[in-house]
Amino acid sequence: MPEATITLTVDGRQRTVRVDTRTSLLDALRERLGNTSPKKGCDHGQCGACTVLLDGRRTLSCLSLAVAQDGGDVVTAAGLGGGDALHPVQQAFIDHDGLQCGYCTPGQVCSAVGMLDEAAKGHPSHVTADLQADTDLTDDEIRERMSGNLCRCGAYVNIVAAIREAAGR
Prior knowledge:
5 helices, about 15% strand
């Protein structure tokens, strides 16, 4: 099997690892680097449990080859906060009980952080009514922008409330 040595910055720490060239970023993070924050849900890019921020953009790590990300900066939900402080999105998820079993939560949180950044930069979604105006993160906007992240427990109402609060901070 062909292997390659890659270097990733994961949650602020530079890591070098040898991987089979067919290894997904998700498997490299979990199995080779011991970072179990991103979860393996469907392994087909349909559930969002594996969402991380890659070079600042939300990415489904199960669909990305690790070797293609050599030199990349990966932030998982575990690396979002500063020291003992939680990221505002993480705190909002706790405050609004935006989780039940917690399996999808790391991916939901990373996706929400990336989505809020996209909205702040003026990126429209499918439901954005006025492409010239500032993005108004209505509940419909939040739902559309987070539609790639599934919660099997059905905590969607609380997740939307958490993201709405975090957007206002």
